[in-house]
């Protein structure tokens, strides 16, 4: 791995640091982990617009769509610096990282020019309609149907665990359009306006009391035919593109855990705890594991930089996601074991951490990818 930064990348870093120092307020830093009340949501929406106006909302996007066309090293620097500065993630983080690349690759010019600028500013909030009650990590088992009716599709079915579904304006929706085809080949992707008649959204309350997820019901929803993203019955290919972009953001995994570990050490000192040998050993083990995770993530990024196998890069990223979830859960357990409920944010993280080995691909799915694509084991 070679992560020496050329002068132009260091200039990019310094420009970003200067801008963050001038624009990132304490209120925004606090808001990044606050419950998504209407007031916090409005504050984050304004922050997204500020980022977009300054050209920092989508650095990896091509310039023709409002991005900076950032190189891989510049993207790495951007992720590290914004995470360490404790900047909030975009409201449209799923849209920016997952959906936008699919629209850029498969969308029509009308879809690109109409949807992407509003997504970047968070003027439209996006969600993904993937998981269903009987189709979670096994996306190909989905049952939501879309039937051709003249120039339109008629959609019926249910999605669940839809991030920001109750606040979203648009959904990248995966539906079954050919029930007779093999399950991976009969899926299509639609871009659906969630304000259409027949759509019902119900927020889901998680263990920590947040409502970041929703279930979405579709009852005879008439979707225009030009909402199709990519070819008919090629939704699996679109989904693969989407997920590969999601896993490409591996740098945030280790940077985020480094920030959480620093915050935990600071809180231990503030509460006058954590100095016993057992706690220090657990802290040290977590610190070493985060460093290992950094090396693993950089190996995946290095493969992209130096023309390595895409399969190896994807396998390394899948393994990194698994390791990240396990470290996050152990960090949350340590914080709660030592601080207990007296530190509310760590009690909240203890509850939230249970999802780390599920969201974005379960540990079981990711380890299967690693076994098959990296180790070459049979399915």
Automatic annotation (TrEMBL):
SUPFAM superfamilies: Acyl-CoA dehydrogenase C-terminal domain-like, Acyl-CoA dehydrogenase NM domain-like. This is Acyl-CoA dehydrogenase. Belongs to the acyl-CoA dehydrogenase family. Its cofactor is FAD. Residues 8-121 form the Acyl-CoA dehydrogenase/oxidase N-terminal domain. GO terms for cellular component: plasma membrane. Residues 127-221 form the Acyl-CoA oxidase/dehydrogenase middle domain. Residues 233-375 form the Acyl-CoA dehydrogenase/oxidase C-terminal domain. InterPro entries: Acyl-CoA_DH_CS (IPR006089), Acyl-CoA_Oxase/DH_mid-dom (IPR006091), Acyl-CoA_Oxase/DH_mid-dom_sf (IPR046373), AcylCo_DH-like_C (IPR036250), AcylCo_DH/oxidase_C (IPR009075), AcylCoA_DH/ox_N (IPR013786), AcylCoA_DH/ox_N_sf (IPR037069), AcylCoA_DH/oxidase_NM_dom_sf (IPR009100). GO terms for molecular function: acyl-CoA dehydrogenase activity; flavin adenine dinucleotide binding. Keywords: FAD, Flavoprotein, Oxidoreductase.
